[in-house]
Model the fold of this input.
Amino acid sequence: MPTGLTVRSDSADPVSFDFGRERTVLMNPYTGQVLGDESPRLRTFFSSVEGWHRWLAMGGERRTWGRAITGACNLSFLVLVMTGPFLWWPKEWTWNNLKKITLFRGGAWGRARDWNWHNVLGFWCAVPLLLIVVTGVVMSYPWANNLVYRATGNTPPPPQTGGQAPSEPGVASRRNSDSSARRSEPPIIEGLDKEGLDKLFTRASLQVPDWTTINLRLPNNATGPLTFSIDRGNGGRPDLRSQLTLDPVSGEIVRWEPFSSYNSGRQLRAWARFTHTGEAGGWMGETLAVVASAGASLLVFTGLSLGVRRLIAWQGRRI
Done:
C-alpha cells in the first residue's frame, strides 16, 4: 500500500504515489497508466546522502547511535562557531588588521596560508553557519526543540510515540479520472473508494483557492479523519502551508490549521527545518547554504592543518 498521494495543480503534471521514503511511482492522472518510478537513481543517491548526513548510514537499531553521533558533532560545531570570533577578533579595528581576517592573501603558503584561509572563511561564513548549526541542534535534541517553545512563552508539544519523527509531508491534489474504472478496483483506503477520495481532494482545493500542491499521507488503517497539507508555494516556505483535516465519510472539516493559527513557538520551529537547508531563502538561501557548507569543510581542513603544525612545532621544541 502507498504511504502518500501526490498531485499538483498543474494539469500537465503526473500523480505520484509514495511507497515509504525509498520509492515514488508516477501515474497518468486521467488514465491511471503507470509511467514509472521517479528518477530512481537520483532518488537512491540523495537517499544515501541523507542517510549519511542524519545517522551515518546506520540501519536498524544502530540508527539511534548514528543520530547520537551526528547530534554530538553538530553541538560541538556550534561551540566552535560561537567561540571562533573571539579568536580572530582584532585587538585594534584598523584597515590593515581587518584585511588579514576578511581578504584572501595571494602568495601565502604553509602555515600563513592556512591561518589566512581559516580566518577569512570563518569571518564570511560565521552567520550562515550559525543558522545552519543552531537549527541542526534544534532538530537533533528534544531539549533544544522544547527550548524554542519555552523561549517564546509556549508549552512544548508532547513527545512523539514510536521513536521517530514524522516524515516531511508530500504534496497532492485532486484529479478527475474515469469513474467506471474506479469502481472496479479495490479502495485505496478501507471504506473510501477513489471517487470519495476525489471529493475530499475537491473539498481541500476549495479551502485554499490559490493552492499549488495538496498532500495526503495515507494512513496505515482506515479509521479516523484524513489530514491534507495544502501549500501555496514551492515547498520551502512553511508560512504558505496549512493543514486541513476532514472526516473521510461526510467530508466535514474536523480541524483547519493555517500557519497563522500556530503559536509563535510552533511557527519558529517550522522555520528551523527550512532555514537549515536554506530553502527558506529560495535559490539564494540554498546557494548561501551550499557555499557556507563548503566553507565549513575548508575550515575543518585548515583548522586540523594548523593544529598538526603546532603539534609538530611543540615536539620539535621538546627535542
